[in-house]
Amino acid sequence: MRVKEVNISEYKLLSRGKVRDIYDLGDTLLLISTDRISAFDHVLPELIPYKGFVLNQISRYWFEKTRNIIDNHYITDVPSTIYKNLEKYADLMTGRSMVVRKAEVIPFECIVRGYITGSAWSEYKKHGTVNGERIDYELRESDQFKAPLFTPSTKEKSGHDINVSFDYIKKELGDELAELIKRKSICLYKYGYEYAMKRGIIIADTKFEFGMIDGKLTLIDEVLTPDSSRFWPLNEYVPGKKMVGLDKQFVRNYLLEIDWDKNSEPPHLPDNIVEKASEIYRSIYNMLTGKEI
What we know:
The protein is of the alpha+beta class. It is built from seven helices and 16 strands. The protein has helices at 51-65, 90-93, 118-127, 166-173, 175-197, 249-257, 271-289; strands at 12-16, 20-24, 28-33, 36-39, 42-47, 74-76, 97-101, 104-105, 108-115, 129-130, 133-134, 144-150, 153-154, 201-213, 216-220, 229-233. The strands form four sheets. Strands 8, 9, 12, 13, 14, 15 and 16 form a seven-stranded antiparallel β-sheet that branches. Strands 1-2-3-7-6 form a five-stranded antiparallel β-sheet. 39% of the residues are buried.
């Protein structure tokens, strides 16, 4: 089954994002991860089989494993057992939904980079900097940084996010909260990185999102998924070589290869690209969790 959207009449739809449908359950929220896929700020026409299931289950997996690092908003992933009037949607929601606590969202993408790639590599080649900060040692594409870098950006409702300095974050949020966010982001990345390495995966970079619940910093949204991270197969890693990962970058790479201006309506994905993308999402789920779909 491919799920494009879930229309629940019993509760208020708060938002229908690029991937998730979010419903207000009163004291909590219902997050449903669909099979929609986005690239370059566009939702693509095709659905990727199992994608929503993978995103939801991987986030749940990490939420449970990182509670000793920071609290998160996850409550349960089986809302139909709690909210009986949602049972008729069970086929659409099972495995791809979770009930979470409401949070006051902190409007920044908290990006941690362990390796130089993507936009960071482009900036470094031109200016010798990453997120405006000078790197005082030589790097090749896909090289590992001496230590993970915290490179935040704004969280825009539409259009591109904007890279910002850590000093900007401190001015907006205050020194204490900004330092806590940076420290927790790097701790989460290091934990995920070490865990994934044992399973044959390099987490090259990732992004986290946070909110405040009862005055306490809380991890929200998704965690270390193929949509929010770059996953590289460890056995294929070659420093200095452009890496092809087990993540959404595969679809982005296809779109970069064809004649699309990224401003007009996005093109359809061929069946083989859809099938390969689905295979990538399922493989990363298997490698991380040891479970098959």
